[in-house]
Amino acid sequence: MAHIGNTQSAIWTRFSRSIDLAVVACLAIVAATGAIALSPPAPVAEKTVIVAEISAPPAPKAPSVRQRAPQLQPQFFPWKAPETYTPVLPEAPKPAIPNRQQEAFLTRMRGQTPFRASTHDNLATHYGGNWREDNVSETSSGTLLSIHRVKGESMPYTIAELQSPGKYGYGRYEVIMRPARGSGTVSAFFTFTGAHFGDPHDEVDIEFLGQDTTKVHFNYFRKGKRGAFEGFDLPFDAADADRLYAFEWTPDRITWFIEGQPIYSTPTGDAGIPAAPGKIMMSAWVGKPFIEGWTGKPTFTSGTGAHYSCVSFVPMGGTGPGCGDNYTPPVVLSP
């Protein structure tokens, strides 16, 4: 029994140790688990989330006053009763484009003048009649350009035009004239050049519409582009008497005059001022039907016309006689 007892005791001893080790291991695991449970949780790494902010594009800003293009403003002059008049040309630089004909001149529009009559037909233009030399006639005080209704011609009217042989540029242009009366007619004094003369279309105008001769129209073109044209009410009927009209043309401005008084000037800085020298021209005409909205329907009396009693030119910076030198405004009797 003693032998058996010793054997059992050894086995039990080993078993007891195994249990003790297991218990110790379990206790260690429990302790470790408790320690983990009781310890504060490890910080969790934060995920960085990038949110793209989409914003509306900024609204366009209105340009400041300095950024805005300057507005060109023409100059208007109040009407004044005419006084003794002496033309004075402003000081100005020499023309950028040389004038081919720069001598001053004055003609009373009788006898020999520097102008010749146009004689060609106008089938392909806005003119409603053909230019005829027979429509140019001398009077006791000047020259009459008349408009006639005709039969047997290629067009229903004959009209009249005078033009200078040479071209003139910057300077002062004066005319004493009386426009034609009657709806559909146009009377003009102007400088002109264009493709027919080998130039761009440059022009400066004084025009009257026969449907209302208490108004005058000022017009100009540079390379075919029309400038800041204007029309004005007159304190008289221009078709009643010959009166003095003028314009001064310089590289940077055109100013129009009525009886020696400035009436209208082109805007300062206007890039549309004509530059090419042109022919001095006078005309009395009627247009084709497509411009009757401007000229009026042609109800005029055949034989009406525009009368010219003086034309003068003084080059810019030069001297010479002018139509206004001895001009006296006509006396208009009250009805």
Automatic annotation (TrEMBL):
Query: Which N-terminal stretch is annotated as signal sequence?
Result: none
Q: Does the keyword Hydrolase apply?
A: yes
| MF-aspect GO terms | hydrolase activity, hydrolyzing O-glycosyl compounds
**SUPFAM superfamilies in alphabetical order:** Concanavalin A-like lectins/glucanases
Q: Which PROSITE patterns does the record associate with it?
A: GH16_2
| Pfam families, A to Z | Glyco_hydro_16
Q: Alphabetically, which GO biological process terms does the record hold?
A: carbohydrate metabolic process
Active-site positions on this chain: 203, 207
Coiled-coil stretches = none
Q: Where is the GH16 domain?
A: 87-317
Q: Which keywords label this protein?
A: Glycosidase, Hydrolase
- Supply the PANTHER family for this chain: XYLOGLUCAN ENDOTRANSGLUCOSYLASE/HYDROLASE PROTEIN 8-RELATED
Give the similarity note: Belongs to the glycosyl hydrolase 16 family.
- Recorded protein name is Beta-glucanase
Q: Which organism is it from?
A: Hyphomonas polymorpha PS728
